[in-house]
Amino acid sequence: MSVTSAPVATTTTPPTTTGIPPTTTTPPTTTTPTTTTPTTTTPTSTTPTSTTPTSTTPTTTTDTSPTTSSAPGADVGGGELLSADYPQLELALFFLSLDNVAVSISVRRDGVEPWGRATGRRIDGAAVSSDTPFVVASVSKLVTALSVARLVQRGDLTVDTPVTWGELGLPHDPAWRDVTVRELLDHTSGMPVNRRSWLDDPGPCSIPLAAAVAAPPTETRGEWRYSNGNYCALGLLVERITGDPLDVAADELVFAPAGVTGPSLSTEGVRDDMAPSPRGIGRLARLGGAGAWLASTDDVTAVLADVDPTDLDVLRWPGVMVDQYGWGHTGTLDGAKACAWVMEDGRTTVAATVSGSTPRTGGEVCDAVVQALATDLGIWAGEPFRTPI
Description:
Layout: E1 61-63, H1 87-97, E2 102-109, E3 115-119, E4 134-135, H2 140-153, H3 181-186, H4 206-213, H5 228-242, H6 246-255, E5 264-265, E6 293-295, H7 297-305, E7 321-323, E8 326-333, E9 336-343, E10 348-355, H8 362-377
Antiparallel strand pairs: 1-3, 2-3, 2-10, 4-6, 5-6, 7-8, 8-9, 9-10
Helix pairs in contact: 1-8, 2-5, 2-6, 4-5
């Protein structure tokens, strides 16, 4: 299934809610939220019934959008990237900021410099911006999958090749010998889930992976079962083929082509310029290629904007998630949530990161942010229906 074929509605009247429940805190004055009752086919707006909250003042927001976009209605490179153009996204940022340490959202459209907003303080006390690194959790899997895609394009790897477990230094049950790279990418390898084993103990991801492949694949092989082990193995495979550590390989294969220099692996330690992580980052080393990256929302949108159709031969459903607006990935850890999404057949990319525990999952961050942006862009097609969950 091609991830570029997700339908996009273009003529519906968008509602103005963001998918985040209202609170008793005064929202930004740039927009007035209204409640809606969309039908199954054509969403329609209704008269607002909520009263104006009167409680606290919202967290200061850092505006990192280009200064060339300062005049209302200005057109930058064919894409309007103004605060006034994204009132629902501004509102989504506001609500996300209420109970969290820091939040960042970036939008990149038509290849121009990103619109960015952020709230909170970095570890060194400076204001968070959309260029501030956050824990991106399982959005890291997109970096690993793109690294694999670029190796395929170079002729160094084919996705239908069985994984060479022995070359990865992993003793394994013979039943793993015909498991392919594609099965790892798509989460159909029969890799056991064992979520707790990927965070509870110290050490690299090769430790729980070795335990997983010491037994045969589960009976779910051939079915989608999300497991960090698949992308831990892919990260090790990238290192084996390139002869470089994962961060060096990803810099060459993914970040440099996108003009990005900011991401780093959590194994390199805490950065003073990063957003605080309530649960710390030491445990993220256990995730390897499945979830160890720190990156800004500006950087994530740049990486997604650099994806081309050849990459999409590898980045396909169910390895990536899809909905009616496009495709991408979410990330969820205690104290960190992330969303990275490609919309309008690649014309628009959006990323959001949260340092904190609200909402519960990165998928809920995507629900709010993608719906808000779709409303602002005039392509609202209902609440995101994402698969696989």
